Amino acid sequence: MLNVKDVFVAYGQSQALHGISFEANRNETVAIMGRNGMGKTTLFKSLIGVLPLKSGSIEVAGNAVHKDESYKRVAKGIAYVPQGRMIFPTLTVEENIQTGLENAKVKKVPEEIYALFPVLWDMRRRKGGNLSGGQQQQLAIARALVTDPKVLLLDEPTEGIQPSIIKDIAKALNEIRKLREITIVVSEQVLSFAMDVADRLFVIEGGRLVHESTRAETDTARIKQFLSV
Ligand SMILES: Nc1ncnc2c1ncn2[C@@H]1O[C@H](COP(=O)(O)OP(=O)(O)OP(=O)(O)O)[C@@H](O)[C@H]1O
């Protein structure tokens, strides 16, 4: 479903990604694990088109997207939940979700979204800025989901979120995958969360993927070593 091949990205002269390649299948969740500064956010920004590739390719369901602007990538089936959530603090919860429906014919938030995140229904008239971090994360996921993506990208969704809410987010992601059979790619530093949601785990270090394992064969001690400074 998502096919990333030999992706190189640089900030000016400074090379950040050195040839990233991986595939993520339909109805599969993949976690990209790595410490701060290893290239997770750079990879996600290049997948959604905020950062240009120096070389390499990105395909969604067999269609090349790496030359497209972000909005076209969304139309081709990628949705992005950025690090730090980036919801609109002065819009209500409902209005925030509706921003994801900009190009849709019907602006009504599908019931399925509120069924997945009941707290968003309870809070639908509140301002996004008044929600807790975990609720804002659920809001950011809801906003991404209404574009009906084939591939959902989430950059460090557990960052700054309490452990009990992290479990809710894992549950929601598993539920979303079960309902929609989409591809989910998540970057993470929290191993327990990755083990709850991912079918396969990768480790990124210095802009390269240095490890891959299925969940079943994952040696958690080894991953912890990668994640510790
Ligand atoms: N705007 C920028 N200009 C120059 N270098 C940058 C820029 N943003 C990131 N980098 C560099 O690119 C590398 C990868 O950073 P990136 O933010 O992708 O890491 P990360 O794994 O997402 O870390 P974090 O969890 O802190 O977001 C780092 O060496 C970083 O210093």
From TrEMBL:
The record's section on PROSITE patterns has: ABC_TRANSPORTER_2 (PS50893)
Q: Name one GO biological process term.
A: L-amino acid transport
Coiled-coil residue windows: none
Q: Name one Pfam family in it.
A: ABC_tran
Q: Which UniProt keywords apply?
A: Amino-acid transport, ATP-binding, Cell membrane, Membrane, Nucleotide-binding, Transport
Record-level Gene Ontology MF annotations: ATP binding; ATP hydrolysis activity; branched-chain amino acid transmembrane transporter activity
Which residues does the UniProt record annotate as the domain ABC transporter?
2-227
Q: Which InterPro entries match?
A: AAA+_ATPase, ABC_transporter-like_ATP-bd, ABC_transptr_urea_ATP-bd_UrtE, BCAA_Transport_ATP-bd_LivF, P-loop_NTPase
Report the sequence similarity comment from the record: Belongs to the ABC transporter superfamily.
What protein name applies here? Urea ABC transporter, ATP-binding protein UrtE
Q: What is the lineage of its organism?
A: Bacteria, Pseudomonadati, Pseudomonadota, Betaproteobacteria, Nitrosomonadales
